[in-house]
Amino acid sequence: MPTHTRARTRGSSQAGRAVAVVADVMAFVIGLWILLYLLDANQGNALVDFIHDAASWLAGWSYDLFTFHRDWVQVVIGYGIAAVAYLVIGHAVAGRLYRR
Description:
The chain has one domain (3-98). Helices cover 77% and strands 0% of the residues. It contains three helices and no strands. It has helices spanning 3-38, 46-58, 71-98. The longest helix has 36 residues, at 3-38. It is elongated and about 45 Å long.
């Protein structure tokens, strides 16, 4: 394999890995907030508040897509849609970068 092709493949591989890691971290933060909410974590705690703020920012586009009468269902579905979307889209983009 020519050197320039190997360098491009390595760069695409690194970019794909970076995209996958970012998508995983975003989904993890959202998933962590769902777990903290379901476990009734102390929302006065600084770490819980930080996770909630980050997850709310990441899932702001999906939180009110559907409305449910039970708060816990609203949190699980509203935030869960964003987490799944980040995983699916992030790993699809990463896969495309790996194949370059």
